[in-house]
Hints:
Elements: E1 6-11, E2 16-25, E3 28-36, H1 44-57, E4 63-69, H2 74-79, H3 103-115, E5 121-126, E6 132-134, E7 137-141, H4 146-158, E8 163-167, H5 175-180, E9 185-190, H6 199-215, E10 229-238, E11 243-247, E12 254-255, E13 260-265, E14 271-276, E15 281-287, E16 291-292, E17 297-307
Parallel strand pairs: 3-4, 3-5, 5-9, 7-8
Antiparallel strand pairs: 1-2, 2-4, 6-15, 7-9, 10-17, 11-13, 11-16, 12-15, 13-14, 15-17
Helix pairs in contact: 1-6
Amino acid sequence: xxxxxxxxxxxxxxxxxxxxxxxxxxxxxxxxxxxxxxxxxxxxxxxxxxxxxxxxxxxxxxxxxxxxxxxxxxxxxxxxxxxxxxxxxxxxxxxxxxxxxxxxxxxxxxxxxxxxxxxxxxxxxxxxxxxxxxxxxxxxxxxxxxxxxxxxxxxxxxxxxxxxxxxxxxxxxxxxxxxxxxxxxxxxxxxxxxxxxxxxxxxxxxxxxxxxxxxxxxxxxxxxxxxxxxxxxxxxxxxxxxxxxxxxxxxxxxxxxxxxxxxxxxxxxxxxxxxxxxxxxxxxxxxxxxxxxxxxxxxxxxxxxxxx
Length: 308
């Protein structure tokens, strides 16, 4: 019997929302994989991919348990924003949340309390909003949990070739370490471009899900186990002031140290700040909109390439 998507009521304080979730039991026992999307409400290739994951596996033809939440940030999805418009916060930056906190804190606390129990791997699908460009990348995280780290490496070796980061503990507000302390591997998958929902972006997400399932023994199939070149650091650039952002073509792929990545210009067209690569790197994500606000992140790139 096929597992259906059901709507679960979640009280965010000032509003109660309905979140779609599928709990799919495989034919044999095994690991539990959680696939989420729509954490940023305007990343549509990821949402499409999560629904396709449910459609593909709803018959339970695998081992273990598959949990699929195709849209987490329902308020952001309904308004076409990355953040939650009920409080202006980004749910992806919050963990574990609070039971009586802001709407986003309540949302993530629901995920923490009701969904994450018993999960081995949390694969969080993302993409690019209409103002964002990105290089398809899997972002993985070293934790302070040895068992989780060993699982991470096993997954890493089973992944298809591509851009992968494997950051050290302590990054991103400590969220990966907090998730890791629960015995869960957290992986963020980024595939999409300028809000596009093209099949090539959706299918890459599906390939990543399949690779993770194979590495966990949830699905049979050939695994091309091999060490991977990964970026151990991610550098983020923030706007020094309000102005017009002009990225360079040279900063949109692999580049060498001292490459000009872009510049901020004043409203009168004068260059007021030029951004130079601090080391050799790989473009990961960048804003394409012209206006930038002081303090706003508009570019990130990976560096310190290592074989793991």
